[in-house]
Amino acid sequence: MYKIIGADEKEHGPVSADQIRQWLAEGRVNAQTQVQAGEGTAWKPLADFPEFATAPKAAVTPPPLSAPAAPQKTSGLAIASLVCGICGLLTCGISALVGLVLGLVALNKTKKGTGQSGGSGIALAGTIVSAVFAVLIPVFVILAAMLLPALSKAKERAQTINCVNNLKQLALGIRIYSGDNKDQFPPAATWCDAIKTNVGSDRVFKCISGDLNQRCHYAFNAKLAGQDVNKVASDTVLLFETTGGWNVSGGPELMLGQPRHGRLFVVALADGSVQQLTAARLKSLRWDP
Q1: Residue-range definition of the domain harbouring residue 253
Q2: Which residues, in sequence order, are CB contacts of 103 under 8 Å at separation 6+?
Q3: CA-based nearest residue to 47, from 28, 33, 27
Q4: 10 Å Cβ neighbour count for 30?
Q5: What pLDDT is stored for residue 62 in this prediction?
Q6: Domain for residue 261, yes or no?
Q7: Do 161 and 133 belong together in one domain?
């Protein structure tokens, strides 16, 4: 005979082994139920008794299936926040400000929501993207506005230096020609052809800021053609900027109407030096040898 401790924590029995098997089949006891096989013996779980190992177990009825939860709808504000944040790239951060507000509202609603609306991740992403673009893009715009004038001046300065170097090489080429031709300046009508082999590259005939369709952007002072270099005043104009053309020669009438390099005109003198002059100083230039 056996005794058991029921779910009510009270002893029941003595009962027979058959009765315990019936209770086991009915689910009134289980493998963990404490059982005493006789007076004075130790209490043990029912599973420790081999005579009940083959007893039929109570069928376990599975819990009723609950209806699947309805999927949450993604918050429209969250989506709008992300879209506005991305569009901040195209609107210089203006739409990103709107996206930031929408993202904060969407985050607040998804946190306090009843489960019918979701998208907290999208709302967070929209808030972050909007905040970044709303701050960084205006900063970049301001920096660009500050740097562009400086970059423009640097570019202008580089072009001026290039033009100065061109005229220095052309003036040197003329001096080399003169040294090989009885100290005489080249003919005005063919001066480019005459010094071409003395300058090394056709690129020195062109100004970066000039018309790329022209072979040369400089003119020769026609009054120096065939003159003795030793008898010409050193401050006489030798080469000057013009609109373009090969073997162009003449006088001040061929000078550029507007400077290519900011407010400066570049002129080479008979002694080989190169000067950068404003329009006001052009009137003081010497053209006659």
Answers
A1: 155-282
A2: 77, 78, 81, 82, 85, 123, 124, 126, 127, 128, 130, 131
A3: 33
A4: 14
A5: 45
A6: yes
A7: no
The CA angle 116-119-124, to the nearest 5 degrees, is 140
Task: Provide the edge-to-edge strand list for the sheet that holds 274-277.
Answer: 249-250, 218-221, 237-241, 265-269, 274-277
Whole-number pLDDT of residue 81: 78
- Specify burial of residue 70 (Cβ count, 10 A radius: 0-12, 13-18, 19+): exposed
Question: What is the average pLDDT score of the chain?
Answer: 83
Give CA separation, 94 vs 87, 184, 248, 257, in Å.
9, 68, 55, 44
Q: Which whole-number Å values give the CA distances from 287 to 47, 243, 267, in the listed order?
A: 124, 19, 12
pLDDT tens sequence across 12-65:
878 888 888 888 888 888 888 888 888 878 888 888 888 877 655 555 454 444
The string of DSSP codes covering 238-254 is EEEE-S--TT-EE-GGG
Asked if residue 104 belongs to a domain, the reply is yes
Instruction: Mean pLDDT check: name the lowest of 22-26, 65-69, 161-165, 177-181.
Output: 65-69
Q: How many structural domains is the chain composed of?
A: 3
The position carrying tokens 């429209």 is 76
Determine contact, residues 159/208, Cβ cutoff 8 Å. Answer: yes
- For 145, phi then psi, to 5°, come to -65, -30
Give the residue from 32, 35, 56, 57 showing the smallest Cα distance to 44: 35
> Does 287 fall in a domain?
no
- The answer to whether residues 29 and 61 touch, using CB atoms and an 8 Å cutoff, is no
3 state DSSP class of 14: strand
Mode of pairing for the β-strands spanning 34-36 and 73-74: unpaired
